[in-house]
Amino acid sequence: TPGSPVYSVGHRNVQGLAWDSAGRLWATEFGPEVDDELNLIEPGADYGWPDVTGAPHDSRFVDAQVVWPSTASSSPSGMAIVDDVAYIGGLRGQRLWQVPLVAGTAGEPVSHFDGSYGRLRDVVAGSDGSLLVATNEPGNARILRVRTG
């Protein structure tokens, strides 16, 4: 609706938001126990929750660009986009996901640091092109500097 502060609807549990170099908004989102998502957010679009999750190929809703079938391996949290690559922290999955973004389409996710640093809560682009990754480990939370490229 023109003039509405609501940008999009049908989200379950958005964790991270970031813009790519073309000004497109991307979001990470937890599914209920399956179908964690990376979504390209379009103004006025409906992403399906609570009716559907993932990529149901239902014309009423926008399909997720990436669907992780199990929250145990993903739980995508905070995200940064650097040089049109999304870097996404994984909570339960305890890994850093790297997802190439090309012209509004997400490529195949690649995981890094599988379990090495525990739960990864947030990712921020550093001023030097590196990533700052916040861990979420009770009694041992850290901020890691990760070089890209």
From TrEMBL:
Domain (Glucose/Sorbosone dehydrogenase) ranges: 5-139
SUPFAM superfamilies given in the database record: Soluble quinoprotein glucose dehydrogenase
Coiled-coil ranges per UniProt: none
InterPro entries in UniProt: 6-blade_b-propeller_TolB-like (IPR011042), Glc/Sorbosone_DH (IPR012938), Quinoprot_gluc/sorb_DH_b-prop (IPR011041)
Top-level taxon: Bacteria
Stated name of the protein: Glucose sorbosone dehydrogenase
Source species: Arthrobacter agilis
